[in-house]
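Weekly sync notes, structure subgroup
Attendees: PM, AL, DS (notes)

Item 1: joint prediction request from the bench team. They want all two components modeled as one assembly rather than separately. Inputs as received:
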Amino acid sequence: MSEHQQTLIEFMRQQADKLAVQTLQHIGLTFISLFIAVLIGLPLGILIARKKQLSGSVLGVAGILQTIPSIALLGFMIPILGIGPKPAIVALLLYALLPIIRNTYTGITGVDASVKEAATAMGMNNWQILFKVELPLAMPVILAGIRTATVINVGVATLASYIAAGGLGEFIFGGISLNNTNMILAGAIPAALLAVIFDFLLSRVQKLNFKKIKAGTYAMPVLLVVLSSLYFIPNAYGGKLTAGFTPEFMGRQDGNLGLESKYGLKIHTIVISDAVMYKAAYEKQLDVISGYSTDGRLKAYGLVVLDDDKGIFPPYYAAPIIREDALRKFPELEKTLNLLSGKINDSVMTDLNYRTDYLHQSPERVAKDFLTQHNLWKPARGQSNAGIVRVGSKIFGEQYILANMYSMLIKGYTNYDVSTKTGLGGTKICFDALTNDQIDFYPEYTGTGLLAILQASPETINKVTQNKDSTYNYVQQEFKNRYQIKWLKPIGFNNAYALMMREQQAKSLNIKTISNLKRYLNSK
Amino acid sequence: MIKVDKVSKQFNKVKAVDAISFEVQEQENLILLGTSGCGKTTTLKMINRLIEPTSGNIFINGKNVTSQQPENLRREIGYVLQNNGLFPHYTVAENIAIVPQLLKWDKKKTEKRTAELMEKLHLGADYLNAYPNELSGGQQQRIGLARALVSDPPVLLMDEPFGALDNVTRANIHKEFKALDELTRKTIIMVTHDVQEAFELGNRICLMDKGKIVQSGTPADLLFNPANEFVESFLKDQRLHLEFKAIKITDLWDLLPDKQKQSNGNSLSADIDLWTALENFRYAKSETLTISKSENEIKTIDFEQLMSAFNRYKNKQGA
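Output from the run, pasted for the record:
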């Protein structure tokens, strides 16, 4: 409580090294992809300006690529290109293609027909017309396209951290998961500045008069190559085993920080999103990952949890947390939500997660099957005059299943109507939505409450993480005092952080605990 | 010099040009006249292969144009467009130097030739470093002409060259055009929809309609021996003006009284057209004009004598 609140400047100063590396990586990623996109997009634009019958299909395909959600596109890349910079660059370049192709096409077809006719009539051949007439006259429009592509790329490059390509996204997404505003801003402000600066510089290039553009055209590729090479400066890949940790895990005491301080574990680490982490481990892109012990993909991808023999991962018992005023507003709610309490243990939860994550059953179906099996399911009463309960969930399968179960229970046992706001990206977003009266409750984990929301001091953490009840009691008390938010009864399972490896590799290297892993890494 | 032989051009199902044939003599100025859509521009563009004919042949100096590399063919043919087609990102000097560059002239030669043309076209040397958008429409058109003339090609194709200019500017540029020595030694094919312009600048006119040549001949032929009603109605609106332009004093020579007074000043050449003679009455502020056909043949006439000769000439044509 009495801890000094760190300012943004302090944070940035303290993390200056990381910030510099991430910024360089960010610029590098942006411009490598931009450079390749220009190399591909410019000739394509010229081609479709010449052969107009191709323009529809080429622009169509580029347009479709543009509409694929960036995170999905990154996901598609992993089976083909693995993780790291390669898939990130390809994804970024696909996004940059459309504005470049379209503006090249528009620029060239927009050149005054009489100027082109004059050029032809004077005896210029096609190449001379292209380089002396069409490209110089289309240059301002083409540059506008490159400018758009640059700004898009600076933005999308933040997502590259999801697949271990680095960049300022590491801070942004780490900060969102850790409820650390300074960390978010330390990533977001430089990213925004980069976009503004590049946009401004390119707007200046665009406004140069026709003469100077000639020099500018030669300078552009050189500049692009220089900026692209920035990515490789901080790169230091290598090591025996490669670990992939989520941005959240990287910054947590019960995560990488604890691994380093308590176990002295030093492993070559890259930052990656949990959406793709399991698959990357399965595909041998990664050897060690930070997962959740009830994750269904554990079972799906043949991974084993390493024993936490020094106890750095506190218990993460799940329970719905609800604002006290919502409890007053919906008096029947607490009783209804507690119906689920004690019903789901670790292995049940892992199985339910397996069904959604791997068998791709809908969370709704999984929830209904479970409730029916346990004689909890009742058809919806269909009366909706007693108010609407807003259910939130974070953006992973387990939370979707729980949110579905809760909404079915509420509909079956009370007269309240339900609206679900699922897929809130991260603890901070979910918790802010709760405190700001955007949702009424969502399932939270005791460990997350302790570390990410309360940000308890190391002494407190040591004291209350001895067993699951002391953790629960502590967060329950603190949430009540600080936020007027009530922790209902735990659901039963413990979704703790865990280190995982492929079962086969763990066996062959004889690694069962985190201490084993450390010993293996230290042996030469 | 130029021979167009049964040339047709079909765009999809539309016959834009329908088996037309004509010849242009060396140093002749042939006008392709007609309303928009009559096929005159298409015809012109087939000569330098901006458009390839569907059938028929075009010969320049006996050589079939299709037997030559189009780029090489075009470098030998000057081309002037209605919207001048100057490169907006090139200065005046660079615009004029485009063809010399393609022909790999050395810099000195290009500069000298450019300076020469700028002077002939009454453009100051300080315009050389200006960009086209800094010039007036008339100046732009002159630069367009200079660009077409710079390599002194024997043939000049002009597509509505003065179409975008206002009347005053156009009248001035017509005068310069006729006075320019560079142009008198060229074979010129010019497209226009402007009857007056055709009569003013053309030695011969091909009047076109719906892809065919309706009549071809001198301005006077068209006026006084129209092939059909179309020709007649096409010229009807400005008939009197055209007649004044089409008839030269030499045409009227025998009809003029054989009187000779002492001339009060210089005599005019009988090569001028009637319009110019009439203008001279207005500006000279004298009752009579002295006109000489050759050294021995000099006539002094007044306005009424001229008019009566004109009327008698017309009656003779009509008969």
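Discussion: The two ends of chain A are 44 Å apart (CA to CA).
Action: AL to compare against the crosslinking data before next sync.
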